[in-house]
Amino acid sequence: MAMMRFHLAITSMALLALCTSADYFSANFSYTGPNGPANWGSLSPSFAACSNGKAQSPVDLIKSDIVINKQFKNIARNYLPTNATLVNNKFHIGVHFEGKVGDINVNGKNYSLKQLHWHSPSEHKANGSIHDAELHLVHLTQDLSNITVMAVLYKLGDPDPFISQFQDKLVELGKKKEIAIGTIDFEEINGSSRRYYTYVGSLTTPPCKEGVNWIILGKLRTLSSEQLKLLKAPLKPEFKHNARPLQQMNGRKIEMYYHLHGTHVTPPSKYHK
Ligand SMILES: *[C@@H]1O[C@H](CO)[C@@H](O)[C@H](O)[C@H]1NC(C)=O
Ligand SMILES: *[C@@H]1O[C@H](CO)[C@@H](O)[C@H](O)[C@H]1NC(C)=O
Ligand SMILES: *[C@@H]1O[C@H](CO)[C@@H](O)[C@H](O)[C@H]1NC(C)=O
Ligand SMILES: *[C@@H]1O[C@H](CO)[C@@H](O)[C@H](O)[C@H]1NC(C)=O
Ligand SMILES: *[C@@H]1O[C@H](CO)[C@@H](O)[C@H](O)[C@H]1NC(C)=O
Ligand SMILES: *[C@@H]1O[C@H](CO)[C@@H](O)[C@H](O)[C@H]1NC(C)=O
Question: What is the helix (H) or strand (E) element at residue 154, kind and residue range?
């Protein structure tokens, strides 16, 4: 019991870190120099998992670790148009929400969307490539005990209509920490999630908390080079490249789901090179 309470205390601390701004972090982590990813674990006792953890993220979604799962498990996503705030979190640009944004249902469990943010280049490696950017949609169970992060990978190309909704506001984020952006519509990222990878890993920023359920969507999306530039512009030089290096799998497996019209089909080999 005491053990369990202890575990919950740690979990809520990590969640606090996850849900509030960068002000929470008293220690300074960076992506370069002495406070870079290789040393995150020694910057604070609460960051220990960053160096000791055995189930860390991000990872390479590599063929030898992928198990094709033939069960049909579509992820039901149900996001609503919600008032949102664009936030410069110092180490990445994100969007926070005022009210309920909606939820996803994974294996019968309900996770509510709390915030989203971008990394560039991508943190996860898929189809044999590090892509140009990665969106993380951070979801929590109602009791805040479990985290599911849904990741969307991007390559440069046509503008992403989701980002286009508030792209002009990104320019102002160089001067302000937060900007209200009114209602944003999720229709654009509410699409099909019939092709995806799942595995259990960690937060990719300190405190690198483990037990995070990852869902990486199989469909590569595009964003324009202007959009990518705008997402990086407000960040200081040491955070413009804000992808943590790939972590060891340590025997973990990645499950891949690939369905068309409710039926499992064999994914093209490109997906599990
Ligand atoms: C973090 O960085 C700021 C500014 O460089 C510095 O004032 C502060 O002492 C640093 N905090 C820690 C815990 O290293
Ligand atoms: C968004 O905020 C505006 C101004 O505060 C308010 O009028 C509007 O009803 C809000 N919309 C939603 C969907 O909450
Ligand atoms: C998920 O939980 C929210 C409350 O957080 C609730 O409004 C919603 O109906 C639930 N959805 C499902 C599919 O259970
Ligand atoms: C949280 O997730 C873990 C691993 O996915 C699972 O074992 C546990 O039962 C979950 N707890 C809750 C409250 O959903
Ligand atoms: C998202 O998709 C779900 C299921 O397809 C649908 O019920 C919902 O209305 C969609 N929401 C938006 C904002 O498009
Ligand atoms: C992987 O490759 C397939 C086939 O070319 C493509 O449809 C898919 O979008 C790619 N996904 C990622 C995440 O790179």
Answer: strand 147-156
Nearest CA to 138 out of 202, 182, 82 is that of 202
Task: Kindly give the distance from the C-alpha atom of residue 159 to the centroid of ligand 3, in angstroms, as a whole number.
Answer: 32
The values of phi and psi at residue 86, to 5°, are -85, 130
Helix (H, G, I), strand (E, B) or coil at 30: coil
For ligand 3, say whether the CB of 32 is within 6 Å of any of its atoms.
no
Q: Please tell me the predicted confidence (pLDDT) of residue 244.
A: 98
Which residue of 103, 142, 144 sits with most ligand 3 atoms within 8 Å of its CB, as the best mutation to test the pocket? 103
Q: Is the CB of 153 under 6 A from ligand 6?
A: yes
CA–centroid distance, 271 to ligand 3, in Å, is 32
CATH pick for 2-258 out of 1.10.287.3510, 3.40.50.880, 2.30.30.40, 3.10.200.10: 3.10.200.10
Tell me how many degrees the CA angle 50-256-7 measures, rounded to the nearest 5: 35
Spatial contact of 59 and 249, defined as CB atoms under 8 Å apart: yes
pLDDT < 50 stretches in the chain: 1-14, 16-17, 19-25
**The predicted structure's pLDDT at residue 273:** 58
Determine if the pTM surpasses 0.90.
no
What pLDDT is stored for residue 266 in this prediction? Answer: 76
Predicted local distance difference test score (pLDDT) of residue 73: 75
